[in-house]
Amino acid sequence: MGATLILPGLNGSAEGHWQRHWARDNASSTIVRQASWSRPALHEWLQSLEGELERVGDAWLVAHSLGCLLAAHIATRPAARHVRGAFLVAPCDLERTERLHPGVIDFGEMPTDRSPFRTFVVGSRDDRYMDFIRLRRYAALWGGGAARSWTCRAYQYRKRVWTVAGGLPAILFPYRCARS
């Protein structure tokens, strides 16, 4: 199936986060390291991702929050030729995230270009970082195959179930909340 590059968001993904479980449970997965998790700068994060893509060749991207915006930004760069597809979980709205974390993020504007690779977007209706209407809008702009929603506060990895959905790697979360 190829390599999977995991793209955490602001402050990285702490131990116990579903991205950590994914990385631990799948030998082909790598968490893309960033120089600063607490003060993300787009140009630095892009360099790290591009370096990993050059190192591994073709790869799937599995992103969360600000990592989703990184995946969307890579779409316009030459390294996008290495991306087989992207699974974007709970993308953040940059404007809202900057309000919640003033002076911390240097990520420019929200990416709006269509991805040259297949994209699957999921989010929740009660995410304080991106309201669902905007989630659907950005999923459509990026060419997302779907914008699914769950009414819950956090994405919880509770069982190790893996599948391939529409050619993209996807994790089946046994949510304790209702899908809408």
From TrEMBL:
It comes from the Bacteria. Pfam families: Ser_hydrolase. SUPFAM superfamilies: alpha/beta-Hydrolases (SSF53474). GO terms for molecular function: hydrolase activity. InterPro entries: AB_hydrolase_fold (IPR029058), RBBP9/YdeN (IPR010662). This is Serine hydrolase family protein. The lineage of its organism: Bacteria, Pseudomonadati, Pseudomonadota, Alphaproteobacteria, Hyphomicrobiales.
